[in-house]
Amino acid sequence: MAHKTRKRLTKTELKKDPVNDALLGSMTFIQKHIRGIAMGAGVLVILILIVQAFSATARNQGNESVANFYLVGQMYEMALNGFQSGQYDTSMGQLQMVRSLALSNYAAYPGRDSGQRSAVLAAKIGIIFGMEEQVITELQDFLASNPDIQHANPAKLHLAVALENRGSSTDLGTARDLYSEVLALVDGESQMAWEAISGLSRIAYSMGDLQSSREHLETALALFPDTTEFQAYQLARLEYAEL
Length: 243
Fold this sequence. Notes:
Residues 1-7, 13-27 and 43-56 have low confidence and may be disordered. By secondary structure, the protein is mainly alpha-helical. The protein contains eleven helices and no strands.
């Protein structure tokens, strides 16, 4: 069956076509407001470019922060390996550089995961160097910035160690509170729990509470039976003190 030829619409009928009416209306609007539309489109393009540039910068900064932390982490491991092989001078120099780079990474990216991890690593190295005063100030400022809990807990542990090393009665009391706080927040069978319990044992010993010191030490040994050199030393001290 042959298709019927469609009748051409007259101008009057065309004007009544709702689709065509919409198109004609759009064309009329564009013609009347062409300058405004062009300016608006230009502004939109600029906004899109700004957003894209900002997003790219944020990604680049994030990548840079992660790369910086990876670098300092590798250098830290190299320094530790150097200590084990007897390269003390070289390793000490590497650790000093790692601490400086880690502090710089945190200063540049304080809100990023890798930046906060850098701050904690810098504190750990500071404790190795016996820089308790600086480490205490750095970690107090770090914790005052409300870091993520995954970074706050190790920071509290390092702060407790630094306070414990400084050793005043006030420092020991604050360190004990920090160890207890961390212990209440982490998995009771984790490495961090072990570190907090071991710290509580040392604090109790320093305060003359030998019974609590032994109880905490035995709890720590129950978590990780492998006795470290310090734990063996702590046990020897307790046994001698209890004679």
